[in-house]
Specification:
282 residues; mainly alpha; Methane Monooxygenase Hydroxylase, Chain G, domain 1; two-stranded antiparallel sheet; 62% helix; NRBF2_MIT; receptor; NRBF2
């Protein structure tokens, strides 16, 4: 009596019996490897593995004739592509947080003065903005005093300084564009009235212009740095809120050991009871 099992038109072997080097098995291997990279927060490597798994799964789909298996592989392929998009977004978000932290540390070091020892430490040295702006005001006072010694009336510079203050981060500093114009015009008049060779007068005028110009660049640079610092702090707070409060997601360092389990996996076998009547053509 002929049974269902030994009927020549039916094959009761496992529906998928893949060797270790088959595209389907390699796709699952790369998928497991991508999961390991993701757990160790190595997102770039995980993206590469997911992309490779998707490519291998497409190769396996080209050699499969079962419509049910094709549907299953198509869903798995879609899942791989979705993981790639999610890891891309997460990697970009972490890069933004990292760049924001580095920019904040760089601005903090750039605003340090000679009175503060600029040493390399793990924690950036905080600099009070009020101290920095006070130093800038003192610098302008020194230049003002220099022009006073050359005959400028004290009330002229004082009026210019009082009218040219503006605020950055709650602190006011003089607008060097206006004080620069005052210094140039006053000192140029004094040099023209002084007795001496024309070359000496030209050199003194040129030197005064350079001093005022450098002071203006210094004040402008400090203002820009502090404005950028305030902006970066706000962006960092917003990014940290989006990222969440999990400290393990905020740090991805090379010191973390990456451990792999054995990838010598047995051939994958899939059995679907509802597909027992399908015949796989080899």
């Amino acid at each position: 009596m002929e049974t269902y099992a030994n009927h020549p038109d039916h094959d009761i072997r496992p529906l998928v019996q893949a060797p270790m080097e088959s595209p389907l098995n390699l796709a699952h291997t790369y998928s497991r490897r991508a999961d390991m990279f993701t757990r160790n927060r190595k997102y770039d490597e995980a993206i590469v593995c997911h992309r490779r798994a998707a490519e291998l799964l497409l190769q396996a789909m080209n050699t499969t004739t079962s419509s049910a298996l094709l549907d299953s592989m198509a869903l798995q392929h879609k899942a791989y592509l979705s993981q790639i998009d999610k890891l891309h977004a997460k990697s970009q978000l972490l890069d933004l947080v990292d760049r924001s932290a580095k920019t904040t540390a760089t601005v903090s070091r750039a605003t340090q003065t000679d009175g503060i020892h600029n040493v390399e430490t793990k924690q950036p040295i905080a600099v009070d903005e009020g101290t920095v702006f006070q130093i800038l005001r003192e610098n302008d006072d020194v230049i003002t005093h220099f022009f006073h010694l050359n005959g400028q009336k004290p009330e002229d510079s004082q009026i210019a300084l009082d009218k040219s203050h503006f605020s950055v981060g709650g602190h006011s500093i003089p607008n060097t564009l206006e004080t620069q114009s005052l210094y140039k015009s006053t000192f140029s008049q004094k040099v023209c009235q002084a007795d001496g060779p024309p070359n000496l007068a030209d050199n003194m005028t040129r030197s005064s212009n350079e001093v005022v110009k450098m002071n203006g660049k210094l004040s402008s640079t400090v203002r820009s740095l502090f404005q950028e610092l305030h902006t970066n702090k706000m962006e960092k707070e917003q990014l940290e809120q989006k990222l969440g409060d999990n400290p393990h997601q905020k740090k991805q360092g090379p010191e973390e050991a990456l451990k792999f389990a054995s990838l010598d996996l047995p051939p994958l076998e899939a059995s679907y009871p509802e597909l027992s009547n399908f015949h796989l053509q080899s």
